[in-house]
From TrEMBL, chain A:
InterPro entries hit by this protein: MZT1 (IPR022214)
Family according to the record: Belongs to the MOZART1 family.
Subunit structure: Part of the gamma-tubulin complex.
GO biological process: gamma-tubulin complex localization; microtubule nucleation by interphase microtubule organizing center; mitotic spindle assembly
Keywords of the record: Cytoplasm, Cytoskeleton
Location (main, coarse): cytoplasm
Gene Ontology terms: cellular component: gamma-tubulin ring complex; interphase microtubule organizing center; mitotic spindle pole body; spindle
Annotated organism of origin: Hyaloscypha variabilis (strain UAMH 11265 / GT02V1 / F)
Job of this protein: Required for gamma-tubulin complex recruitment to the microtubule organizing center (MTOC).
Compartments, as annotated in UniProt: Cytoplasm, Cytoskeleton, Microtubule organizing center, Spindle pole body
Domain of life of the source: Eukaryota
This protein's name: Mitotic-spindle organizing protein 1
From TrEMBL, chain B:
Residues covered by the Gamma tubulin complex component C-terminal domain: 524-880
Gamma tubulin complex component protein N-terminal domain ranges (all copies): 217-521
Pfam name, any one: GCP_N_terminal
GO biological process: cytoplasmic microtubule organization; meiotic cell cycle; microtubule nucleation; mitotic cell cycle; spindle assembly
Protein's recorded name: Uncharacterized protein
UniProt family annotation: Belongs to the TUBGCP family.
Compartments reported by the entry: Cytoplasm, Cytoskeleton
Record's GO cellular component terms: gamma-tubulin complex; microtubule; mitotic spindle pole body; spindle pole
Compositionally biased tracts (Basic and acidic residues): 786-798
GO molecular function: gamma-tubulin binding; microtubule minus-end binding
Family annotation (InterPro entries): GCP, GCP_C, GCP_C_sf, GCP_N
Keywords, comma-separated and alphabetical: Cytoplasm, Cytoskeleton, Microtubule
Region (Disordered): 115-151, 786-820
Lineage: Eukaryota, Fungi, Dikarya, Ascomycota, Pezizomycotina
């Protein structure tokens, strides 16, 4: 792969990817999915790599729930 | 692949790091471990679920999202925005798994929202996620309970208040109700989906109508009760005005709904109208009852409609009527069965206008027994139970009390003449017992309802008639009252077999009682025997004595007969014969009297014996029977009289032959010989005739009568019939048959006429013989006188033997005979008479013979064996040549 071409390509791809992530982010806000840009981009890349979207969704939900719980536990402990 | 899995694991690491929250002040080792655990968990979950669970389709995921957005937000804004974003996304080629990302976002979307409202159409989404199916399940119990058994029930019950016969409403009418319900619910669960689909389809293809269906539904209960309402006014009694703005399908539905309304209208005015008879009133009552249950149905319907209208959601398409469970169409289905009932009733009410009493019952019974539709049959059967109630009351009164309580002439028994009952109390002195039996009541064949067979009706008729007769004709009302108290039962429609046995029982009891009364209280059989003994000359010694004592009287003209002498002679005959031992009850009824006089009759022609029959017995021995008896008596009496005359003449001749009749004249003795021959012939004829009538005819018929009236279970009608047959046999075989008509003219050769002729010939022959006898006597006297003259000339001796019939003269006769030869020359004037007499005797004898030949010829060809036998007996040695009448007429 020639470097110059790939560089150009990469830039275009990055722009497009940013666009895609914009669109998806907008949709996720429409749907109240509660995901920030970075998480969303990680998830998109995971799905692009063949991860089952359904399983991923459940994992994300699970992790968020866990995070909420630890915060709550911590808050109660610190108090 | 390895780079891909690396990328995945690094992605997972960064994802975990992003999502795990930093806890301030936490132990770094703990944080490390927590992160590690989370990473392991994520790897495990993702690693286990390889491959997409659903078919990849970008559009499908976007559709799901769109729907979700529409559902959660009342405004379409977000959905629009999503559509824009989606189209932009499609234009970007970078990402290959667009649908997966969308689906991931869809899965992550807000969970807090409620399950979608009732009427999402799940059929449009083929997604088989657990969530969707859970939605389905939650949807089912909430779905409107259309056509459940709760609403079905009044439908079934409406026209079956007694539950007499529950008709199969749906499939499997045999099954028990609960089971049926269960099956229905099960099938309903299957149908529900389909119905929801139909509702949705209907909602899509819905056209707004004016007035709306809800308004029509609101008015419907009033219309069904025959009342006018805003949208559906009754313009007249028999027309319902439908709003002209409605589309044709709705109009046709309303037409169907208008039918029960109009029928109800007509029927309710029918039951208001006064019935002209008890049965008609009961028909109205029965129809009224049915209408009440119809109103019950309407009330249920109204309740359902109200309920449905109250729960209506105005925003839904078609005013939400599809979900409410009550529509015009459903009302049509609900009222269908009721409409059939109403239709049948209005048919009956129309037909009943021209019918009456039993015919009315026959009409309804016709529906219940011969209509193909089991529903119509059951319905008519139910009506019949109510309608027949007054009929059975009448029947009961009739067969247990013998009273006809039928103010409107609806029973199949009717009174003949209302006046006859009125003076029935003094019916005894009218002597109208026979009319009480025969004519007081009449059986109207066309009023017999078809629930009762003709045979049965006849029986019922006889029972009532007998009871009535026992009460009024026989004066035994006490027994009737006791009987009705003991036996009276409630009669009802339905159980025909028991009814029949009851009626049979009543029949037997009544008939036995009646025969008992006739035999014991009214001595019917004794009377019959007395009639045979006295009127039919069965009691020989009595008749012989009567004839002997009356003969001198009866020779005189009819005008010179006096009743007291006749009754005195009758009394004498009774006392002098075995009749004196008969019961006084019988003897006091015997009377002698003269018939209507006509000019020139002598006593013989007019005399008659009479046996008086009074009230209850004259049912059997009717007026007609009395006339027949009289006829037979007169005939027998005439034969008896001729026999008496002939035998007395014969005796005279026999005694005379030894005295005065002896002469030496060849001619005279020849004439006497011939005369005696003819006389003997006649006596033989009369003897045979009498024997035949008394023994072959009367006795044999009597025997038949006896056997038939002493049979078991013999009724009064049987008695009357047997007696009539007895009399007919006697008059027919006894040669007294009515004049037959041959080719329009009265045949003058009936046996009656022929025999009358022969008897008359015999009497005139006897007269001629008497003439001959007196001639012979005078001749004898003359000769004697000549002798005396001769002797006085010679001896001057006186002779006192002027009277002929003294034994002295008879003894003397033969002594003088040898001397009487000169007398023939002497008496010139007297022999003139002899040839005339001889000629007359010869003519009469020949005439008699030819007549007898004719009679024998007729007898020979009689169909009756006994009558042919008479011919044989009379002509046992072929003296006569029987002549056929036909030969005679051709001979002429």
């Amino acid at each position: 792969m020639p470097d110059g071409e790939s560089k150009q390509d990469k830039q275009a791809t990055q722009a497009q990817a940013r666009q895609v992530i914009d669109v998806f982010h907008e949709i996720s806000t429409l749907l109240n999915a509660d995901l920030d840009r970075q998480t969303l981009s990680i998830c998109i890349s995971l799905i692009e790599n063949g991860v089952n979207p359904e399983a991923l969704a459940s994992v994300v939900r699970e992790l968020k729930r866990e995070g909420d719980e630890t915060i709550k536990v911590h808050e109660s402990r610190s108090q | 692949m390895s780079s891909r899995s690396q990328r995945v694991s690094s992605g997972i690491d960064s994802l975990v790091r992003r999502l795990l929250v930093d806890i301030p002040g936490e132990d770094p080792a703990d944080a490390e471990e927590r992160e590690h655990n989370a990473r392991d968990f994520v790897r495990e979950v993702l690693g286990h679920s390889k491959g997409p669970a659903v078919v990849a389709d970008v559009n499908q995921a976007s559709d799901l999202i769109k729907k979700r957005l529409i559902q959660t937000n009342p405004s379409p804004e977000k959905a629009l925005r999503f559509t824009n974003l989606y189209s932009r996304l499609l234009s970007i080629p970078v990402i290959t798994q667009k649908w997966a990302v969308l689906y991931f976002l869809y899965q992550l979307s807000d969970q807090q929202q409620k399950s979608p409202p009732v009427l999402t159409s799940p059929f449009k989404s083929p997604v088989k996620t657990g969530r969707a199916s859970r939605n389905m399940e939650s949807f089912i119990p909430q779905s409107p309970d259309y056509g459940s058994s709760r609403e079905e029930k009044p439908m079934v019950e409406a026209f079956a208040p007694d539950g007499v016969k529950r008709l199969p409403m749906r499939e499997g009418g045999q099954r028990d109700r609960r089971e049926e319900d269960r099956a229905f619910v099960k099938s309903a669960a299957i149908q529900r989906e389909g119905v929801a689909r139909k509702t949705a389809l209907l909602a899509e293809n819905y056209v707004e109508i004016d007035p709306p269906e809800t308004a029509l539904l609101r008015d419907l209960p009033f219309t069904l009760q025959g009342l006018s309402s805003t949208h559906l006014p009754f313009s007249s009694d028999a027309t319902l005005k439908l709003p002209p703005t409605l589309p044709i399908p709705i109009i046709s539905i309303l037409h169907t709904l208008a039918e029960p309304s109009l029928l109800y209208h007509g029927l309710s005015s029918f039951i208001q109208s006064p019935g002209s008879g008890l049965l008609e009133q009961s028909l109205r009552a029965a129809i009224g009852g049915e209408l009440r249950s119809y109103l019950g149905l309407v009330a249920t319907l109204e309740g359902q409609i109200r309920l449905a209208l109250a729960s209506l959601d105005e925003k839904e398409p078609r005013g939400g009527i599809g979900k409410a469970g009550v529509t015009l169409k459903r009302c049509v289905v609900w009222t269908r069965e009721a409409t059939m009932g109403l239709r049948l009733m209005s048919l009956i009410s129309e037909e009943s206008k021209s019918k009456k009493g039993g015919q009315l019952i026959s009409l309804i019974h016709g529906f219940s027994s011969s209509h193909g539709d089991p529903m119509v049959g059951a319905f008519a059967e139910r009506l019949l139970v109510h309608v027949t109630r007054p009929f059975y009351d009448m029947l009961r009164q009739w067969i247990y009390d013998g009273e006809l309580s039928d103010p409107y002439h609806e029973f199949f028994v009717s009174e003949q003449d209302p006046n006859a009952i009125h003076d029935n109390q003094d019916g005894r002195n009218r002597g109208g017992a026979s009319s009480v039996w025969e004519d007081k009541y009449k059986l109207n064949e066309d009023m017999v309802p078809s629930i009762i067979t003709q045979d049965f009706a006849q029986k019922v008729f006889l029972i009532g008639k007998s009871l009535n007769f026992i009460r009024y004709g026989c004066g035994d009302s006490q027994w009737v009252e006791e009987y009705s108290k003991a036996a009276s039962k409630e009669l009802r429609y339905g159980d025909t077999a028991t009814l029949e046995t009851w009626i049979d029982e009543a029949y037997k009891t009544t008939m036995a009682r009646l025969i008992h009364l006739m035999a014991e209280k009214f001595h019917l059989f004794e009377h019959l025997k007395a009639l045979k003994n006295y009127i039919l000359l069965g009691q020989g010694d009595f008749i012989a004595l009567l004839m002997e004592s009356l003969s001198s009287n009866l020779d005189r003209p009819a005008g010179a007969q006096y009743r007291h002498t006749l009754t005195a002679q009758l009394e004498h005959a009774i006392r002098g014969s075995n009749a004196q031992y008969d019961s006084p009850e019988v003897l006091r009824r015997l009377d002698a009297r003269m018939l209507q006089l006509s000019h020139g009759d002598i006593g013989w022609d007019c005399f008659t014996l009479e046996y008086k029959i009074d009230a209850p017995v004259d049912v059997v021995v009717t007026e007609w029977g009395n006339r027949q008896y009289l006829k037979v008596f007169n005939f027998l009496w005439r034969i008896k009289r001729v026999e008496f005359a002939l035998t007395s003449t014969w005796r005279k001749c026999m005694t005379g032959a030894r005295g005065v009749l002896q002469g030496e004249d060849e001619n005279v003795s020849q004439a006497w010989k011939l005369t005696r021959g003819v006389l003997a012939e006649m006596i033989h004829f009369i003897g045979q005739l009498q024997y035949y009538i008394l023994f072959e005819v009367i006795e044999s018929s009597w025997d038949e009568l006896q056997t038939s009236i002493h049979k078991d279970g013999c009724t009064l009608d049987d008695l009357i019939k047997a007696h009539t047959k007895y009399l007919n046999a006697i008059t027919h075989k006894g040669l007294l048959g009515a004049k037959k008509k041959i080719r329009g003219e009265i045949d003058d050769n009936t046996f009656m006429v022929q025999l009358g002729e022969i008897l008359r010939l015999m009497l005139s022959y006897r007269d001629a013989v008497d003439g001959l006898y007196s001639w012979a006597v005078s001749d004898f006297t003359r000769r004697q006188g000549a002798d005396v003259r001769n002797e006085t000339q010679g001896r001057r001796e006186d002779d006192d033997g002027l009277l002929i019939n003294t034994p002295a003269t008879t003894r003397r006769g033969p002594r003088h005979l040898p001397d009487s030869t000169p007398a023939t020359i002497a008496g010139d004037s007297i022999p003139d008479e002899f040839p005339v007499l001889q000629e007359r005797l010869q003519a009469l004898g020949a005439h008699f013979k030819s007549r007898v030949c004719l009679l024998l010829g007729d007898l020979q060809y009689q169909p009756d064996v006994d009558m042919r036998f008479l011919g044989v007996v009379m002509n046992f040695n072929d003296v006569y040549q029987p002549v056929r009448k036909k030969l005679k007429t051709t001979g002429k």
